[in-house]
Amino acid sequence: MLLRSNDADLRDLARGSPELLDANGAPSGARILRLLGVGGMSSVFLVEVDPRRRSRSFSSLCPARIALKIMKPTMVADLAQEGVFAGQLAQREAVALGRVMDRRPPTEFVVGFYGAGESPVEIRNRSVSLPWLALELVDGGPDGSSLGDRIVRAPEGCDPVRALKLCRGILEGLSALHDEGIIHRDLKPDNVLIVGPVGDETPKIADCGIARVEGMSHTVAALTREYAAPEQWLSRPGERNPLVGAWTDVHALAAVLWFVIGGEHWCRDAGDRDFLVAGQRRSLRTAARLHPGFAGERAALDALDAVLARAGSPAMPEPLRDVEAARVLAPKEAPSRFSSVAELSARLLPLLEEFASRWKVRATREGRPTTAFRTTQAIEPTVVTVDPLAEVIDLPPIDTQGRNLPPLRPGNVSFHPDGKALARFGGHLFYLWDDKSLPIPVPPAEAALVASTTYVLRGPFPGFALVGPAHVQLVRPGRVMSVPLPSRPDGTPVGPIEAAIGDGQTFGVVTSDLDDEGGPSLWLLAGETGWSRPSILPIGGRVLALSSGPYGILAVGMNTKGNKGRALFASFDGQTSVYTAGVIDKPPLVCALCGAERVAWGAAEGIVLAFDRSSVTAEEVEAKDRPVAMGLDPVGVPWLVTVSSVMRRRSGGGTPVWTTYFEKDAGAPPLVAIAFSPDGARVIDAQGGGARIVPRDVASWRSTSALLDLT
């Protein structure tokens, strides 16, 4: 059936859930379910793709649910009047995103791309061919799905720890585009989407609709007035503007980062003539929603202001500012803009890291959380028991592509907030999402270290990390690189790495060095390759697991004999609290989890311990076998995975009980990990398969408004 709409913005296109047709009018296997948002150029729809009937327009990597961006018919007509073919414009965005997706693994900071095409649509009895793009569906859940949503909702403004993470991700995403010869040209808060709950956010750059791609000549002149660089005003449709380059995105990037830190737009409104006409950038001190962690550091704030002012300068970088057309754009005294994201990052990130470090210490001493975290309590409210508690969808083992792989072990798979993961099967690496897998090439020189890896973790910045007894390797888009190990002050090497943490907030390793205080050493990565001074963990034995939260790091493990539990909490100001009563008579603790408040948990075989500031409470656990993983779902409720079961902490009758939500079949591979998305929990087994668990309250995990808000 031909797609039909009576609306210029296609708002009624999803009525009746029609099937998308390809350019020849044949079914594509994709069904349009509902409208997600309307922007200036396109409308975006939630689409379900049947893998059995999927047309060649969609990539084989295409997941079952995607966002389909369809160009509006008015935009097609407007482009034609300017001599630009709509299909060419869509193809440019497809090429841009396709280049980024070709990296292995793809960057997590750019929206995924899964295909492109054109479909005939009947608009008020007239057939029009409309280009479309198949994109990653980004649902930020109840916290909002755009950078604009998240920052506006921060009560005190964005804290320095959160700002550092968001800014670093946006910088990484834009760098990935520039590395592939792509200039975005319309970067703004609504074009940065966010996945993951507060406390575990990943920004994703989206909407490359007016991007300029190296090697493609056709272009369109478009901009967002409050974020566009001055040279963009000189662009003409169909003509290449020689003044536009990576520095053009740097200008918009400065304004986006100012928005993250200041909590409001750099340009006050459309009538802000100081900004729009004279190019005068206001100070961060004038931001009404500047977080106390920034406002309290006045000298550092001035330095940060100066970096952003230079990044957003109306003056072009040297030597372009001497071009005649560029001289009229800025006063002579204006500083030359940074020419690249790398130049800006080199100046900006050390300042943001210093803000974050100081705020962690200050917040800890004031008894405040160091960063924003989940918005709900860590204990599920009392509910009427419904049987079953969740829908379970089986997931098949990964496609090994003919390889005979060793089993996946606990600690050897790591998920990003978007549900994509890196898994190590012996010496082989696979990128996983939904029921799909993609082998990651391992350089021959790195193969032995990959095979000796103990932990696969979230990377300290982008990508993932592989940690073994004597190595730390970063797996980033298109490359694997080694990180120098920490060393003692006298330069001598440290002992073997026996535990590690990489959860998106904190990255560090624990080495087995014992000193007079009787504890191993915790080293946290500071910057790209440097390590902080070691913190001694007087745990009285070995550390087996770590977890970080808004107040510090929980370390759990066992005594030197290996038969009793041990636990301590290390706050961010260097203080440690060792738990003894209620711990040292329990079995070794092998999993750890920090909650939204001050409560944390450690799991041993057949038992879970809840840790508060000074107390330890044993909680009832339905499954008694060996724990392998713990995690917080999008609304802050903790889950526990054992080799055979998945449990969720429930507060039935006021007494917390870890209740079974899933139990694997007898003879099925053991379970090894868990991750969460707005669609439910995914538990993964030793063959890379497992199950998707959709709890009865999953609606609270999802966004209550449009998933995308593209303007």
- Global morphology: globular
User: How many distinct helices?
Assistant: 11
Strand percentage, roughly? 25-35%
Provide the spatial order of strands within the biggest beta sheet. Answer: 30-31-32-33-37-36-35-34
Which class best fits the helix and strand makeup? Answer: alpha+beta
CATH homologous superfamily of the domain at 141-371?
Answer: Transferase(Phosphotransferase) domain 1
Quickly give the CATH architecture of the domain at 141-371. Answer: Orthogonal Bundle
Stretches where pLDDT is under 50 for at least 5 consecutive residues are 705-711
The name CATH uses for the topology of the domain at 141-371 is Transferase(Phosphotransferase), domain 1
Name of the level-1 CATH class of the domain at 141-371: Mainly Alpha
Care to count the β-strands?
A: 40
Largest sheet: number of strands, sense, barrel closure: 8 strands, mixed
Rg measurement, Å: 26 Å
**Overall mean pLDDT:** 88
Percent of residues in helices = 10-25%
How far apart lie the N and C ends? 30 Å
